[in-house]
Structure to design on (273 residues):
């Protein structure tokens, strides 16, 4: 089966493939991936998709791979490796990273990825109070948000943020000394508010941003927190958002990820970094 670039008309087939593997039917996420990135797939002669993968570029130097899926009926035929090799070739000289499940990690390791850290997905109803230390973002804050995000991720993600922040139910900023020093967004995925991206100068600011977004959620919230010595995972668990699963943050080859990653508290989503 030949690998080709998919277009938005293939979105429904991507949803069918995702749900067949037990993933949620995340239409808004897929639409954003088609808009901000490149989705590649193999069309099954029998109908539908045999597999797919998404590549999202941030400038010329950084790219993330996500949503790598192979239909169960097509398993154990090397399709996952072929899709990943295609994505790596398409990324060219860029530093490529991804978030790997425990099932996908062995494949990525064989392809030259190495683990840099562990991310814990925590889900639950936030029981804490609003910190009251942040305010709703305005259009005038957008330049500061873009700059904070670029500094943390190490690349310009203006195009991604254009689409993502337009979908977000909340975008909040934290000010210190008359300047915006941090921000956090929250977007619904099904009935869950996924908090992220979030950039903060320290753990106190991170807690304030998360609390002020999560306390406004109508139901459950999701936090994808990298395991660090900042106490955020334990703080979230004490406030009702308990660990559910883990993924490995991985980078291809011997490169290091750019940017000030310590300030990146939460990714936009695991498929986008």
């Amino acid at each position: 089966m030949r690998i080709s670039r998919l277009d938005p008309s293939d979105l429904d087939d991507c949803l069918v493939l995702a749900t067949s593997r037990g993933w949620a039917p995340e239409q808004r996420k897929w639409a954003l991936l088609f808009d901000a990135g490149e989705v590649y797939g193999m069309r099954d002669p029998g109908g539908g998709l045999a597999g797919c993968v998404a590549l999202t570029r941030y400038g010329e130097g950084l790219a993330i791979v996500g949503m790598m899926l192979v239909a169960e009926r097509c398993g154990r035929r090397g399709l996952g490796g072929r899709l990943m090799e295609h994505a790596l070739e398409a990324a060219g000289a860029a530093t490529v990273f991804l978030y790997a499940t425990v099932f996908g990690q062995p494949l990525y390791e064989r392809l030259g990825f190495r683990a840099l850290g562990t991310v814990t997905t925590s889900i639950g109803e936030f029981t804490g109070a609003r910190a009251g230390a942040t305010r709703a973002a305005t259009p005038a804050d957008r330049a500061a948000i873009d700059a904070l995000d670029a500094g943390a991720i190490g690349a310009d993600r203006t195009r991604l943020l254009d689409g993502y922040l337009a979908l977000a139910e909340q975008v909040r900023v934290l000010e210190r000394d008359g300047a915006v020093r941090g921000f956090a967004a929250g977007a619904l995925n099904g009935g869950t508010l996924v908090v992220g991206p979030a950039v903060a100068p320290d753990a106190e600011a991170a807690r304030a941003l998360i609390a002020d977004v999560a306390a406004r959620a109508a139901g459950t919230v999701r936090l994808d927190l990298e395991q660090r010595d900042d106490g955020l995972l334990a703080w979230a668990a004490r406030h009702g958002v308990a660990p559910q699963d883990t993924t490995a943050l991985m980078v291809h080859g011997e490169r290091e990820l750019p940017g000030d990653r310590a300030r990146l508290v939460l990714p936009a989503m695991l498929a986008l970094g």
